[in-house]
Amino acid sequence: MEVKKVEKQRNYSLDLLRVIAILMIIIFHICYKALIFNNLSEFNKLIFAFLLHFGEIGVNLFMLITGFFLYKSNSSKTTKIIRLIYDIWFYFILNIILCAIVKGGYVVTLSTFFPTSLGYFWYVTCYICILIFSPYLNLLIKNLEQKDYRRLLIISLIILSVIPTISGLAVASVENGPVYSRFIWLIFMYFLGAYISKYQESDRLLKNDREFFIKLNIFSSFLAIIFIFIFKYLSFSFMPKVPMFYMWPPNSIVVFLMSVSLFIIFVKTNLTKKTKVIKFIEKISQHTLGIYLLHDAPYNYLILADCFIWFQGFSTSKNLVFLIALITILVFAVSLIVSIIKKFTADRLYQVIFDKIEQKLKKSLNSSHL
Length: 370
Hints:
Helices cover 69% and strands 0% of the residues. It is an all-alpha fold. It has one domain. The longest helix is centred in the first third of the chain and has 29 residues, at 42-70. It is a multi-pass membrane protein. Its EC number is 2.3.1.-. Pfam families: Acyl_transf_3.
């Protein structure tokens, strides 16, 4: 009797989530880098404080997606790491060229030669390090019993999120203490994404339906709004003035709940039929790294200085939210176009050079074994 192998259909909902995550990050950067909080009207300060949460939710989502898929992989990540370093250098050099054109020059310093290790694109630097460590992280994931794995996640959440969220009130920052760092937090997100992937059908909490996590996401979003109002008016002599956007960092318990609930909503959203819209979303999702690297390049603040000044003129305008949405779409579209052009030009050249080097290395290795 012939046994037919049933292939699991791909769920394209996480491709859509990648696109949503990069849009959230763009919104965050527009607010964080182009607006001055103290110059905003009272209403726009509330909007600003809420939108700041978006960037760190986006960061958490990308690492949850990485853990969700990557923990199953045993292959070497060398090729992917080299490609990421190439991507960083491409957009970094492009950013320098644009800066030199707009500002009439660029001064080369020692830091120019270390865009990856100095964290000019901090998330990608952390991502590369996690790729390097991933074979060992995956080994731990595969050998942990579910009970021990869950306990590890709970302990990590308490140390990295719950305690800093509470103790941070003393220093007006959730990102505090000698243990926490963004790299450690992203490793935790990686482990959590892998756990959701591995135990989504057996964990008691994860077995809840999609509606449960929609309600959790709405609740955590309201929680973020409530804390914005609390910290707007809360003031005690024994503690520093806590900003309205206190809960915006990636490890705050509020952003954690918003991120994880949104992620699970999309995991439980079944998009398996490859329609024209889904094909379009899938293609766009392949460019999220390029969109991130272009729109968050380190010298954009110099290149776009006049645009920033123009944008700050709307600090008290009732149309600020509409303008943020419009600029987000514009930044996304321009970055996407540049990434597509790169794919059909520089990337093809890179692949030809890389393949030739790889072939020569293989030939030299084979000849040395003879």
